[in-house]
Amino acid sequence: MEPDALTASAAGAFGTVGDVLAALWAAGAWAWANVWWLVPAMAALTAGWQVLQQRLAAKALAQRTYVELVPSGQFSPGEEEIWRQGMQMIRAAGSGPWWTPKRARTLRVRLRADGSRPLSYRIEAPTSARALLSRSPYGPRVTVTPATPVADKKRTHVVRAVLTLNGKPGSRLREVPLEPDPLQPLVDAVAGIRAELGDLAEVCVDLSPAPRWQLALRRRQIVTQARAEARREAAREAGWLGTQPTGSLPAAVGRLLDPAQWKGPHRSPIVMPPRPRRVDRDRVLGKLAESTGLMRVQILVRCASDTEGRAEQLLALVNASMDVYAGASRIAAQGVSLGPWRIGPDRWLWRPRFDVRWATGLMRPASGGWARIDELAGLLKPPTAAARMPVVEAQMPTYEPGKDLLPQGWYQGPDGRERLLATHEDDTLFEVQSGKGGWGKTMRAQVHAVASAHNGRGLAFVDPHGDSFTEVAPYLAHDEIMDRIRLFDLTVRDTDAMLACWNPLDMTGGQRPHEATAAVVDAIATALGWGDVTAPRALTILTKAIGALIAVNATTSAGAGAGEQQATLFQIRPLLTEPSFRHLVLKALDDEALRWWTTSFPDIPKDALLTVLNPLDRLAASPVIRAFLGCPLSGYDIRQAMDESHVLWICPPGTGPTDRLLVSLIVRDFLRAGLSRRDMPEHERRSFRFYLDELISLDGAASTVLAEITEQLRKFGCRLYGMTQLLHRLSASTRTALLQNASCLATTAGSADAIRQIIGEWGGKVTVEDAAELERWWHYASFTVAGKRIGPLLVRGPALTDAFSHLARPRHTGALLHAAHANAGARPLNELTAQALTQTETVRSFLTTLPTTAAAAGTDDTQEQYA
């Protein structure tokens, strides 16, 4: 280009710059001249913009969706699941309408404890995020349910706090492991909340996507500050080395102290000044180096109570729970302390701003409110299986007399308060108690039974040891129970002792003959291990014999007062071995039953009868059992007890083979009576509870009665409380049915094999080692309340003395015993024994009065070999 052209071009450029400068000068002059109205106009525009932003924010924050996350007992998320949940939350926070201001693009995690639950976990987000939040990355172990805005009552005392992330820019909170649960300190902090005192604690964690321009500005500030700090450090180092004598005090002092400097000018060696260190951008920025997973955070806390001082105490505990995150950065409360006063969001000047943020979720985080998903992982999930959750009053009530509750055990919460936990009568269906002998199984059942009796419910307590009635008598000696109490004590020894009786073949109660026959046959066969394969002939003989005697009893009970002539189990021997007695019995049979006795029975070998007669002879060998089972009319009627809510105490003589046969008859009759309630409308079936100690003695290889009770009798209002030292010794079918249907499981200390069955039902929450080291009277137990499983919990077994001290009436135990015998129709043992021994002749005399049917008259009794 020619010189003239270059000159012209430069002149044009300078002219353009000059024109721009002149225009700017003119604009500035005009603005200065009109500043009197420009400033108010700009202020008005700014104020209008702020008002518009506030209204848009209020409109956006008013359109929210609410969901609640309810974890299962096995919820245990991994880091990847929490990361996905965090990313979903960030996206949900920014999913509002396009016009939503940045400060209103928020998502709120609300952790709330008000006494109804230990700690609820809710998410509040823009309405447009409803579909996104309805699907949780945590999978099926977290239930996501729609919720409504929290509506709280007004409380007398309220305190507030704003928690911020304090620390150097980019520094991280402490990396908290997922086990134990990071929420455990917060759970413990609110564990002492009492709903009856109006206590409430809420922590709201507001999250917002990180704005790009704010993040870029913050990064630039951090890097600039780091470089300035590097230059200052280099300058300080240079001063120490003496390369900057005029600016370094240490160097000047060194020259004054150096004698060489006094002799004249001295030439210092040439030293290169240190260069500022290189700033590593990623290290300086820390967690702000990457945008993914980064969010703005504000944490608001509010605690309230109707009792003075409790709200402040809760707030202090909640603040302390956040120390679990303290590392290079920490979560701390905003404010300044001046002696006993603290200036912060709870004071009148700052309170309105806090209340607006609390009510709306508006985001106003402090300058340090940046965090990554992995830093706040503990707050981005509900409590996990690793958390030790307390049991609050609303989950499991405290026992109070007259409230239709059953006491279960003394529980000490994290706050040190001990209360007697209880379950509702209607929720408590089947219970299984295992553990070491003498460690409190029977005592806990006794407390249970006393409470149920005072609740007006019916029960039967089977105690092979015989001393439990004496222990509970002072607590049952009340008028409303004396009318319902019945005692069947087979542990008596004196001949004049009072004893009630039971005839399993008694037909005066109106039971169906085929049901009574099946119940007795099944009970005996179960106790003896008979089956269609192992003892088919014995089963047939027993069935036909009992059916024949029940037919006789159906005939005797038809007449007025004729029940005294009924046959009992001990008339099976004369029926099978005495042709004359058998011939009389045949007069009471129909043609079908008679045909077996005339065609099949004569072909049975004589020694085959011994299989049936031997166990009956063992029963008859005991005077007490002979008296109990050998009298015609029963004082024991389990169906009547169910329908009229009687309180039965049954004390078998022991747990030997003969005693097991007797108890098997009783338990099988319970199943029969329960099934017979089909003829009652469901709403009329009163609940009845059956307590069985020493389940092993009732269960055999072929026994299914306990399994059938738990599987079939729930709908008929029947309940079962079973106790055993060794659950694994029960048959597989019985054990499986009990564990499957149990609403309460409990174990005391014991051997590993003995307690492993119940421990295994709790999914690893309690180890065998934990249970094996329990002290006496202590239990691990799980319960069902309102359809939800609670526990396992460590509880101290209740004792009669501390649970029912207000009910004890030891002076009335004599009256209770008299009422128990009178209600059961008890008579002296020697009187019952005499009647039992003559009952065969009584039945024979009655049968001789019956007319002989044509079929019976035509039979040829040729069975003299059985005489």
3D architecture notes:
The radius of gyration is 43 Å and the shape is elongated. It is of the alpha+beta class and 867 residues long. Strand 19, helix 23 and strand 20 (718-724) form a beta-alpha-beta unit. It contains 31 helices and 24 strands. 40% of the residues lie in helices and 17% in strands.
The number of distinct helices, counting runs of at least 4 residues, comes to 31
What is the subunit organization of this protein?
Answer: single chain
Let me know the average pLDDT.
83
User: Could you give the distance between the termini?
Assistant: 150 Å
Share of β-strand residues? 15-25%
General shape: elongated
Give the radius of gyration: 43 Å
Derived structural class: alpha+beta
Question: Ranges with pLDDT <50 over ≥5 residues?
Answer: 860-867
The helicity comes to 40-55%
